[in-house]
């Protein structure tokens, strides 16, 4: 394994460990729990929603962020609004709970330790000849 392959592999491994999981959702009727983070793409623009219900012809929920980009002129915080299902490009559902301060700190130190291990590996690998 050459140095470039080693760096690529370790960077990929580090990135995979820090990623939050999101999955694409079928646009079939469904109700998500109130605290589930739902990302909706409409006409190529993203918005973040909570308390989402997908019906047979629309998506209803509380748009939290990016709402003006999906042409919601009647948008107000914590007000339920709907958009037609036909104008939605895709929906991703993420982790329902945001990270706590301790979890963010732990994730930072884990990343720092992983970066130190990568640096050590590269140092050993580079001086092996």
Task: Give a description of the structure.
- Helix content is 33%, strand content 29%.
- It is an alpha+beta fold.
- It has a domain at 20-105.
- Strands 1, 2, 3, 4, 5, 6 and 7 form a 7-stranded antiparallel beta sheet that branches.
- β4 and β5 (58-65) form a beta hairpin.
- The longest helix is centred in the last third of the chain and has 26 residues, at 101-126.
The succession of helices and strands, N to C, reads HEEEEEEEH
CA-atom Rg in angstroms: 21 Å
Share of β-strand residues: 25-35%
What percent of the residues sit in helical stretches (DSSP H or I)?
25-40%
Overall pLDDT metric: 76
Main pleated-sheet profile? 7 strands, antiparallel
Judging from the principal axes of the Cα atoms, what is the shape?
Answer: elongated
The secondary structure category is alpha+beta
What is this structure's SSE topology?
Blueprint: H1 3-18, E1 23-24, E2 30-31, E3 38-42, E4 45-54, E5 58-65, E6 80-84, E7 88-93, H2 101-126
Antiparallel strand pairs: 1-7, 2-4, 3-4, 3-7, 4-5, 5-6
Helix pairs in contact: 1-2
Give a nutshell description of this structure.
The chain is of the alpha+beta class and 129 residues long. The chain is built from two helices and seven strands; from the N terminus they run H-E-E-E-E-E-E-E-H.
Characteristics of this structure?
alpha+beta; elongated; 29% strand; seven-stranded antiparallel sheet; 129 residues; 7 strands; single chain; 33% helix; 2 helices
């Amino acid at each position: 394994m050459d140095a470039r392959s080693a760096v690529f592999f370790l960077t990929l491994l580090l990135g995979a460990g820090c990623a939050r999981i999101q999955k694409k959702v079928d646009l079939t009727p469904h109700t998500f729990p109130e605290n589930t983070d739902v990302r909706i793409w409409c006409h190529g623009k993203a918005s973040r929603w909570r308390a989402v219900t997908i019906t047979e012809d629309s998506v209803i929920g509380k748009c939290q962020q990016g709402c003006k980009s999906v042409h919601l002129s009647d948008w107000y915080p914590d007000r339920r609004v709907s958009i037609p299902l036909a104008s939605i490009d895709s929906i991703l559902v993420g982790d329902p709970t945001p990270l706590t301060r301790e979890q963010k700190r732990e994730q930072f130190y884990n990343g720092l330790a992983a970066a130190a291990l990568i640096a050590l590996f590269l140092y050993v690998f580079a001086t092996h000849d």
